[in-house]
Write a structure and sequence with these properties.
Elements: E1 4-8, H1 10-13, H2 15-18, H3 24-36, E2 41-47, E3 59-60, H4 63-69, E4 79-85, E5 104-109, H5 114-126, E6 130-135, H6 143-156, E7 160-164, H7 172-185, E8 191-195, H8 203-211, E9 219-223, H9 237-247, H10 254-271, H11 278-285, H12 290-299, H13 304-311, H14 324-335, H15 342-352, E10 357-360, H16 365-368, H17 370-380, E11 383-387, E12 398-401, H18 404-416, E13 422-426, E14 438-440, H19 456-467, E15 471-475, H20 498-512, E16 517-520
Parallel strand pairs: 1-2, 1-9, 2-3, 2-4, 4-5, 5-6, 6-7, 7-8, 8-9, 10-11, 10-15, 11-12, 12-13, 13-14, 15-16
Helix pairs in contact: 3-10, 5-6, 6-7, 7-8, 11-12
């Protein structure tokens, strides 16, 4: 009997990249070529009550649906499995194994659901399937939790128990610590598995370390073609097959796997990239859920150093259980730095005097409607405040900075092109190479909507209200588009849901208009037509 088994999860874990819409032809060809390659186990997708059957997807409402899509098995040497996130699929959706194309079912579960999940797996075994236990977020397990899991597994006798590195935190020492404890306590007939993620670029090397351990126990390693999978991806099937062929007596047909990569997966990667990235590195280095990092990166206001500082403050109990309210609170607390801004408002009020106020947000209309803006400037001689940017397009009397990332860019440009413009900064900005003339309290300018709470233009309008201004004119406050350029500077980017941002900003503008007259000089999605 083979000691090392490869389990390819491209059609399941890879589905996080393309929402499981591989297409019928692609699914069948991947499945057939994996069998021709000699793959030991093929995981074909998710079983989920909430989905409807679709020939183009690898999410299935029941076991019967899988047989409608997959061809008859080519090789008796290959096992076919699907996976269930505990609680997502009821037992009545699972036909007896004799009536199914599946040989086994893998069940993922959180530590708090372990006992119920083990009972669920027991019922699956009664239907004739082999089962594999997939405890997620394994780095959260204490040694006693592991021993409790082993005790339950030894009673259930599943095919395998898998070490699941859900968020890619594990290094070699972590992996071997769990491996040693489980190898010493699991019944010898139970296989030990490993499912990696590539946050630290260790998925392949950890998987190799795992299969190189001296044991008589069968071992199962999860992998996917080109590492296609959730977030930073997995160990690559072609690499694992090649290593086992070269050093462990394997006979996988790697060319079949390469055909899958060349015909399907390369194209998918160009459309929807996956793999190692700064986001997944930060998440793994802080032992936290990557959605926390996404939230802070999408703000486009914090440096990487600041993001690490915010994440370091996450409640340890919440690190791998994403809590949006918690990260919003930490983000806003981090930005708070109270100053006495009465003198700043008085000085700004005196500098503006009776001149109208023109606010230049960084939208692309600053370029498209340059003549209109210049005409207004010649006619009205406004006090001009640029938002989070400094450019030679227009003169600025002041630059309003509320964004850590933009601050350094502004500092460099203002040093190269001295203009005499004042720097107005919110209190969350720590000055470095660019002196700040006026500080305004960050927290007092926030908008009462989490989606756009620290939108710089809205914050500046709030500042104008606090200063006692009656009217403000906006240019470059265009609104966000899902495609095309959102800024006059092509080097800037927008990350987020444009429709959600636009709805929230439009509602905020209406609330602000109850306190100040807002005039749109250039085209904007927040008005049907600019004035």
């Amino acid at each position: 009997m083979k000691k090392i088994h490869l389990l390819d999860c491209t059609l399941r874990d890879g589905g996080f990249v393309n929402q499981w819409r591989f297409g019928e032809e692609c699914i069948i060809n991947i499945f057939e070529r994996l069998q021709l390659s000699g793959m030991d186990i093929i995981e074909v997708g998710y079983l989920r009550d909430r989905v409807s059957f679709d020939l183009d997807e690898t999410q299935f409402p029941d076991t019967a649906s899988i047989g409608k899509l997959l061809p008859s098995k080519i090789s008796e040497e290959t096992s076919v499995v699907a996976i269930i996130d505990y609680g997502d699929c009821s037992l009545d959706r699972i036909s007896p194994c004799a009536d199914s194309v599946l040989d086994g079912i893998r069940v993922t579960f959180k530590q708090k659901d372990m006992l119920q999940a083990l009972s669920f797996c027991k019922e699956i075994k009664k239907k004739g399937y082999f089962v594999s236990l997939q405890p997620v977020s394994f780095m959260d397990y204490t040694p006693q939790d592991v021993l409790d899991l082993v005790a339950g597994a030894n009673e259930l006798m599943p095919l395998a128990v898998c070490i699941v590195d859900t968020y890619g935190f594990m290094n070699k020492r972590d992996l071997l610590r769990y491996y040693s404890l489980m190898d010493a306590t699991l019944e010898p007939e139970i296989a030990l598995g490993y499912h990696s993620h590539n946050n630290f670029q260790l998925a392949y090397s950890n998987a190799v370390e795992f299969i190189e351990q001296f044991t008589q126990r069968r071992m199962i390693v999860d992998c996917s073609v080109m590492g296609m999978g959730k977030g930073a991806g997995n160990a690559a099937t072609e690499l694992m097959a090649l290593y086992i062929n070269n050093y462990m007596g394997g006979d996988y047909d790697v060319n079949q796997i390469l055909e899958i990569a060349d015909t399907y997966i390369e194209k998918e990667k160009k459309k929807n990239d996956w793999g190692y990235s700064l986001k997944y590195y930060i998440a793994a280095s802080n032992y936290c859920h990557p959605r926390y990092v996404s939230f802070l990166l999408n703000k486009k206001t914090l440096s990487i150093k600041s993001i690490n500082e915010v994440i370091s403050r996450i409640d340890p109990e919440k690190k791998t259980r994403y809590d949006e309210e918690h990260i919003v609170f930490l983000y806003q607390e981090f930005q708070k730095k109270c100053v006495d801004d009465h003198a700043s408002y008085a000085e700004l009020r005196a500098a503006i005097g009776d001149r109208p106020i023109l606010v230049l947000a960084p939208g692309s209309s600053l370029l498209k409607e340059k003549e209109k803006i210049e005409g207004y400037v010649r006619k009205s001689d406004p006090y001009i405040i640029s938002i989070n940017h400094f450019s030679e397009l227009y003169r600025s009397d002041a630059v309003f900075v509320s964004n850590h990332k933009r601050y350094s860019q502004i500092a460099l440009r203002m040093k190269k092109h001295p203009s005499g413009a004042r720097v107005i900064a919110t209190s969350n900005i720590d000055p470095a190479t660019l002196e700040v003339d006026l500080y305004l309290n960050y927290s007092s300018l926030l908008v009462d909507d989490q989606a756009v709470s620290d939108n710089a233009t809205l914050m500046l309008v709030n500042a104008m209200i606090k200063m006692g201004s009656k009217e403000v004119t906006l240019a470059g406050f265009d609104g966000y588009k899902s495609e095309g350029s959102n800024y006059f500077n092509d080097g800037w980017d927008f990350m987020g849901q444009s429709w959600l941002q636009n709805e929230a900003i439009e509602a905020a503008v209406k609330r602000l208009e109850e306190k100040i007259s807002i005039r749109f000089l250039t085209e904007s999605l927040y008005r049907k037509r600019a004035e």
